[in-house]
């Protein structure tokens, strides 16, 4: 199995059954390492050098977060700003993201139809998280899948389990 780092950022985890269910999956499997940014950095002081060193130990990455006011959570944005190093794109530099598999898991309370050009918000989730997608592409990461869980706050236990099962199948492809 691929050694996988899960970079998780949810400022209101206690209100998210969908995210808790996925986190429980990661915790139960030894080849997943869960990094809860809000748990680890409640003061928003990122240990960038330590995080960069940590990235080099993994074969695959999962970024999991909710949409917060039409963007990624502020601590995840700060983590990216502090940890991703533009020197990684220079010739001969060690780039811990180059050719690594990346999966993005996004939860939102909104309806799928709201996140369309004709919907309430006029933007897709991919457009809303484009800063992360572009950053990963610049560093040569291989984005394998973007899983979006719409109306996450309204899912039944059964629907959450089905979402989790679907995501596990994607990881095992």
UniProtKB/TrEMBL annotation:
Pfam families: Flavodoxin_2
Lineage summary: Bacteria, Pseudomonadati, Bacteroidota, Flavobacteriia, Flavobacteriales
Superkingdom classification of source: Bacteria
Organism: Chryseobacterium piscicola
Gene3D superfamilies reported for this sequence: 3.40.50.360
UniProt keywords, alphabetically: Oxidoreductase
Annotated protein name in UniProt: Glutathione-regulated potassium-efflux system ancillary protein KefG
Domain annotation Flavodoxin-like fold: ranges: 2-164
One Gene Ontology term of the molecular function aspect: NAD(P)H dehydrogenase (quinone) activity
InterPro entries xref list: Flavodoxin_fold, Flavoprotein-like_sf, KefG/KefF
